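INPUT
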Amino acid sequence: MSRTIVEPPRLHAALRQSTPLVQCLTNAVVSNFTANVLLAVGAAPAMVDIPGEAGTFARVAGAVLINLGTPREEQRVAMREAVSAASTPWVLDPVAIGVLSVRTALAEELLALRPTVIRGNASEIRALAGAGAGGRGVDAVDDVESAGGAAAALARRSGGIVAVSGAVDLITDGSSTVRVPGGDELLTRVTGGGCALGAVVAAFVATGRARGVDDLEAVATAHAVYSAAAERAAAAASGPGTFAARFLDELAVTGR
Amino acid sequence: MSRTIVEPPRLHAALRQSTPLVQCLTNAVVSNFTANVLLAVGAAPAMVDIPGEAGTFARVAGAVLINLGTPREEQRVAMREAVSAASTPWVLDPVAIGVLSVRTALAEELLALRPTVIRGNASEIRALAGAGAGGRGVDAVDDVESAGGAAAALARRSGGIVAVSGAVDLITDGSSTVRVPGGDELLTRVTGGGCALGAVVAAFVATGRARGVDDLEAVATAHAVYSAAAERAAAAASGPGTFAARFLDELAVTGR
Amino acid sequence: MSRTIVEPPRLHAALRQSTPLVQCLTNAVVSNFTANVLLAVGAAPAMVDIPGEAGTFARVAGAVLINLGTPREEQRVAMREAVSAASTPWVLDPVAIGVLSVRTALAEELLALRPTVIRGNASEIRALAGAGAGGRGVDAVDDVESAGGAAAALARRSGGIVAVSGAVDLITDGSSTVRVPGGDELLTRVTGGGCALGAVVAAFVATGRARGVDDLEAVATAHAVYSAAAERAAAAASGPGTFAARFLDELAVTGR
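OUTPUT
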């Protein structure tokens, strides 16, 4: 079943009003950009990712992001702590799983704890679904549509939403599927373009739940808002550096 | 007693001439932005924060910043090492203390070692003074003026300066108080806006001491320079992304 | 013997076509900027730096960067693992060695494993060659030309290339030397300006080897491309913040 989504600015406006607190246990490369994206979009980032604090904070956060990009030992402990404590929605971003053993084992362990949303590129989703060997780092080697079956199977197995990023994003709950076109190739030239989307997804799901919007629609709306901002930013940019700055500007006006 | 400050560009020019070496043991989210802010303002950043090196470096640094935003175990050891070794001024930024147990205990331990300056938002200052429960992450829930009493008490207890950031910043040594208005709301939309100020404060205190400027005035000058740059940057920005870039540009011209 | 280099855009175009996978075990301050520089230049960054994964990834990466800026314990283990596993070229950036004991010992240990390229400022190169006491943090206290003898001696000892960054960069294999002028002072006002160059060097050496270009020329080409982009970026910038954004833009067009 194919679904369409309501006007994204409406949910984005609600997000701004509620300023959801999004706890991020994310990779070291993109933590700054992710926090700035969350601030721009209207959420409140909190990168609380050490043992002894991650669980405490997860109990008050509106949503939690678990991103496996640089899973140092201390952070892995904190991730388990946060997911165990969280009663709020949480997003799993299985960065570069497949070949790399530490994160792949961790992703499978976390998958069993039923993430609200799993977000990744086609290679990562196929790898987590057991249908592929993974990509080379964060590159999306596989095509989004080719991962549609794996995404749906993974959604049914996890009981949550699976979102696959690419030229056209695909979001599925295992029975219904939404496709979000748009965005811009420049977003793939900024490190953390996909990782920060995971945090935005967390913010929208938290907002959606408080407004009676189902998770599938909230995730798709996050993707749509993100893609629209990227398109506008690209129109004002002269390359990936100015694009990144403009992208934050555009995320800050979307939905106003 | 209320104090005014001398023309900020003069001390900033002195800072540029001396290029104070500021060692930062700061959080992972803002280390890049903090280093860029220090470079822009004319200081020399050095993020030396591992055990076995932090103490060695603290003995040659002009000032030290201790920021508790992401206090991993190895960094906590290095923080203790740096503070014990430092004979130079050091700044404590008790990010998000109150509810989170690891950093709150560490902040109290470090407070006993008498930081030259404590910098934070109203929630954090009240929490460190024992007058509040802390905020939610890095958000300033409390109002600056409401934290004035706690700030003064904390300054008297630590024997140093306490600076509270907000719409109007409040800086006190426990008897005299300086208020620094200005700045721009966009600074709160860039992650590390407050954290990087802590590093700038360290640079100004180091510079001030070499020029016979007392710490209270040096801290207030740092806030004034920072706020003025934010105002000019906001005038040239179209949102938080372009603001961050322009803010660095403006910090680099201030005081020339 | 003094050498000249072929037209840099040609090798840069080849780099873009091959998208070399560059594994970075780099410091926490500059990992984001380094990844963005690699993406802009046309390479694929992968910051895989934890034990248990670093070696696995080094076997598939096109080149590896080892940067000693913030060498936490876990990363030090991963560095040894990556270098031992890598059969591809690897670059050593001995950030701030000399006084700081942990990184200095590690640099000497890694030097014995014969890095393909050693890149640093004059102080660092002199310190690694045993001819100086090191600088103060990442500052280049020594002059590039004064480090020429130390660089050549270090190249002969390591069997690789040594590149010294400064107003005029000096690249040597111990017998031939290439000097690359240009660049812009603003590059020294952006944290990671030198660190990210190490990653670009890695990308160019990987590309050069596949095209029959010798390492000395590939390293010099990387420096030339980097400097040219900095010059163009500086012309469009109003300070270090806008420079950093423009620099990424310019790296993305170089060689097209």
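end of record. The mean pLDDT of chain C is 93.
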